[in-house]
Amino acid sequence: MKLGIPKESVRGETRVSVIPETVKRLVEKGFEVIVEDGAGAAALYTNQEYSAQGATIVPTHEAVLGTADLVLKVQPPLMGENGGPDELALMRAGSGIVSFLQPFSRADLVRSLAEKKIDGFSMELIPRISRAQNMDALSSQATVSGYKAVLLAADHLTRFFPMFMTAAGTIPPARVLVLGAGVAGLQAIATAKRLGAVVEAFDTRPVVKGEVESLGARFISIEISHEAAQDAGGYAKELSKDQHAKELELIASRLPRADVVISTANVPGQKAPVLITAAMARSMRPGAVIVDLAAENGGNCELTEPGQIAQKEGLTLIGLTNLPGLMPTHASQMYSKNVGNLLLHMAGKEGFKVDRADPITAGILVTYQGQVVHPALQPK
Ligand code: NAD
């Protein structure tokens, strides 16, 4: 089976789906691997390193997409939008793609994959079960985002993060408020603590209290039962109007003292909840920084401009939507590990096959042999 690693076409995407170290594991397993010329360059992985691990370098995007049995990508394939290539048109009927596919917001892409008889495996849908943890690309990339969000905030803040007692006076530590203590939020807490900030974190799921406190941050929340806060899969549920009003009140009481807010709150399949209205943002100290990791999903702050760093109301609002793309070497390494582990799992002992009785395969399979097969994507 021939695996194809193209260069990413989306502007600003510096990651690569598979790095040379993973190529080695895949070649040892019996896969053939082709890599587009320069596919790893932006993430600092060279053609020579890929070749040394057994990959064949091919000169063009068309050659990779047109000859691979399974294309391995980071960003969903383009369909000619924004002046980019029509990557789906370049792929062969009967081939497959493993990538982030954004299946719940990209019905057009899912439909086209089925029409073109391309089997789609969505990295967002890796089940969150223990044995799939090493394939969990949402978690690996959220780890990068949480870390980088704090560094961006520190860089834009006109104050120190740590406390200093010097001959030139005493500097109090920065106060950081983290909204949403999932994977990205916990990494943001850990990073802000390492930089010496005083950190508090808010989440609607009471279950994260212990994790927040074990990182040395203060946990704040509203009165809410475990059942009302999260579903069986561990994800947050949308709050009732009354509960949402209560959380806004609590957050509003904390904002005037915060130097930095890192917001990460998401409810799967929905627009991100608004946790900072424009009026609430206006209550913050001049120079405060908000990093809105939910920007791509509509944003947790009403003032966020997705994709931009904006100055408004005396605040810096960071709405960049691809933070892992700012740290492509390690973000690619982690994503590559996830993809490699998935392929080695699917290959089992007998070679790569699509076993729909396997919960991991069934969980990520969006389209198969010309049909949209994922249960969550069936017409209501
Ligand atoms: P996510 O990106 O969907 O959401 C981020 C956080 O926002 C969550 O903690 C959520 O509770 C919070 N949130 C949602 N609505 C909110 C609101 N109105 N106000 C404040 N906070 C709000 O979540 P995620 O980081 O992908 O992780 C979700 C859960 O899954 C976590 O408990 C995580 O530990 C768990 N998880 C399990 C595994 C595994 O078992 N393999 C792997 C990864 C994550």
| Total of DSSP H or I helical runs spanning 4+ residues | 13
Give the SSE string. EHEHEHEHEHEHEEEHEHEHHEHEEEHHEE
Averaged pLDDT = 95
Bound molecules: nicotinamide-adenine-dinucleotide
Number of domains: 2
Biggest sheet, open or closed, and with what strands and sense?
8 strands, mixed
What is the CATH homology-level superfamily of the largest domain? NAD(P)-binding Rossmann-like Domain
In percent terms, what proportion of residues is strand?
15-25%
CATH topology value of the largest domain? Rossmann fold
Strand order of the largest sheet: 3-2-1-4-5-6-16-17
How much is the radius of gyration in Å? 22 Å
At CATH level 2, the architecture of the largest domain is 3-Layer(aba) Sandwich
- C-alpha termini separation: 36 Å
Counted beta strands: 17
Spans where pLDDT lies below 50 across 5 or more residues = none
> What share of residues is helical?
25-40%
